[in-house]
Known about the structure:
The complex is a heterodimer. Chain A is an alpha/beta fold. Chain A has two domains: 1-104 and 186-193 and 219-255, P-loop containing nucleotide triphosphate hydrolases (Rossmann fold), CATH 3.40.50; 258-365, no CATH class. In chain A, 31% of the residues lie in helices and 19% in strands. In chain A, the strands form two sheets. Chain A has a seven-stranded mixed sheet, with helices on both faces. In chain A, strands 2-1-4-5 form a four-stranded antiparallel sheet. In chain A, helix 4 packs across helix 5 and helix 4 runs parallel beside helix 6 (168-180). The longest helix of chain A has 18 residues, at 198-215. Chain B is an all-alpha fold. Chain B has 13 helices and no strands. Chain B has helices at residues 12-15, 23-31, 37-46, 49-66, 68-75, 112-148, 150-165, 168-178, 183-209, 213-220, 225-261, 273-279, 287-314. The longest helix of chain B has 37 residues, at 112-148. Chain B is elongated, with a radius of gyration of 26 Å. Classes of the chains: A alpha/beta, B mainly alpha. Chain A binds chain B through residues 70, 73, 75, 98-99, 102-103, 106-107, 109-111, 114-120, 128-129, 132-133, 150-155, 157, 160-162, 164-165, 167, 169-170, 175, 178, 181, 200, 203, 206-207, 210, and chain B through 1-2, 5-7, 10-11, 13-15, 17-18, 20, 26, 29-30, 34, 36-37, 212-214, 216-224, 227, 231-232, 235-236, 321-322.
Amino acid sequence: MSVNGDAASSGDVLLRVDNLVKHFPVQSSSLFRRSTDSVHAVDGVSLEVRRGETLGLVGETGCGKSTLARCIMRLYDVTSGRIEFEGRDITTLHGGAMREVRRDMQMIFQDPYGSLNPRRRVGSIIGDPFSIHGLGEGQDRKRRVQELMELVGLNPEHYNRFPAEFSGGQRQRIGVARALALRPKLIVCDEPVSALDVSIQAQIINLLDDLQDEFNLTYIFIAHDLSVVQHVSDRVAVMYLGQVGELGPVDGVYDHPRHPYTNALLSAVPVPDPDRSQDRQRIILVGDVPSPVAPPSGCRFHPRCPKAKQRCVTDVPELTPRLDDPPTHTAACHFPVADGENIADSTPEISADQRVVEGGLVGNV
Amino acid sequence: MSVGDPEIVVSAAAAGPGTVGAPSEEIAAAKIQGRSPWRLAFERLRSDRAAVICAIVILLIVLMAIFAPLFKMMTGHPPNQQYFDTGLTLDGQPKAPDGTFWLGSDDVGRDVLVRIAYGARVSLIVGVVATFLTVTIGTIVGLAAGYFGKMVDTILARIIDVMLSIPFLLFAISLASIFHAGLKVVIFVLAIFSWSSVARIVRGQVLSIREREYVEAARAIGSGSWRIMIIDILPNVIAPIIVYTTLLIPVSIVGEATLSFLGVGIQPPTADWGQMIADAQGNYHAWWFLVFPSLALLVTTLAFNIFGDGVRDAFDPRSDRMFN
């Protein structure tokens, strides 16, 4: 997929997200239903996706990547912010106008078992987009659906089968076929391979790769598996607690990670060579991700950061290039990690009681 | 991995989509017909002996209703024809079952057998039509309440609660008295008081199904609300609806019989089981007059109930992994 990298960096912007915020109100359990608490699922995310590229979106469970994907797909109404697709503001679009836009942006879901209606036949599921948008009737639709099935590697004879009669990988192919039906421009892949066996993952990724070349697709690829993201992406965004911590070309982010969180994530990626693996010093973050209902002040990562200093508690770091990085590689960190720096040896300069939110102690483990 | 699984072919799938597996595996896969959940349920039903017997009984009752004129021809007695000379004893009492009146006669000399056959028509028509109306209204309301949520749900749920708390008989009698009692009124009254229980069940199912990922996927491809409700959600709710329908039919039949028994249902002289039972009250010594209509009602209700149980067992979620 990095073949597209050169073309992608000069391509025009297909999707632009501007300071997107999505909060979910939390019902307090008391008699007084009124509550001011909300889950800050996405708290100010801005990014661009260029035509033809694959933008990888990584982060822990709960960092907001799936919520961000659904906001982009307009499955949720955003709390604030702006979404522009092909230059057109789709932030508050509904009904027929939004349906028009949906022809050009589609989604592949994580759960191959849950994302297909068990009571409907596969041909009907894949043909749904045609039926909704009024394209193709009867035999013509059937032909198109069978073409799609062949395209994704399914037997077109299985047109009348139910999802239960397929394996997980095949069901994910059905999901891909459905997303591809209207030849969209953008496909948001929400952890498309996370629920599959590793051997099947490779096949689905290869399929997505081939389809991207054939149909000039643009992908937003969400995953928590860093090695998968490295393989498929042109650019990567690392999310933490609803915000983007680091954003840049895949090589830049993986070889020169600036944000301590990115460093910690990368140090956790399993390395096949046992000798190298032994020599590696893992950066282990102690403590859990703070609750998104009350995110920490300043830099959200400061309760768990090995390099935290006083400034990190008070000032919110901007997402901007750091340490002589090119303008394409940005990080939101006051004290970014330089090349060769090993933060496993670092200790934070703020004490536990200076942190705004309890996050446990971090140190050299 | 199952036989004929294209996953087994490595990366050739990406290049040449049609080339899947070895030829023999393909033939084997094509021969294995997938069985839909409906087919599976149907086969389970078919193997339930009691349900099958009751299905046959129901069929016989239906045939009896359809071919009621046959009874008229065979006995030579139309259902509403009063035979004061041949139909009553010398004292003017109902005649016991004999050669001419196979199940005896009623208090005004009408043929009990023929009236039971014609009465089946009324009971079945009311049972089926009232149930159909009930289920249709209940499903639509339940779907809307469950899917749209928020204000729509709040209003509809309260309406459902109110309808559920209204005592059926009291209001049924009042309504039937206000409007000129007859077939249409009975059907209408029965439907009005039954739709809310269907709506409640449907609403509960829809509330949970609405959160499933395939509903989200449907919205992602641009499906409108009603389309999602009917094409995506309804097929997943239809099983409990079908079960409830088959159990609602005997309830409607008994409901109609009750109303007619009380005199606010089907009016004389139309043959009706509930009416006959009411009229039999003054003639207890004429046991056939009470027993046969009661038996007819009992057998019909029992057959539908047992068949309904069989349908519910056939759709039993515990043995059908599709529901999980």
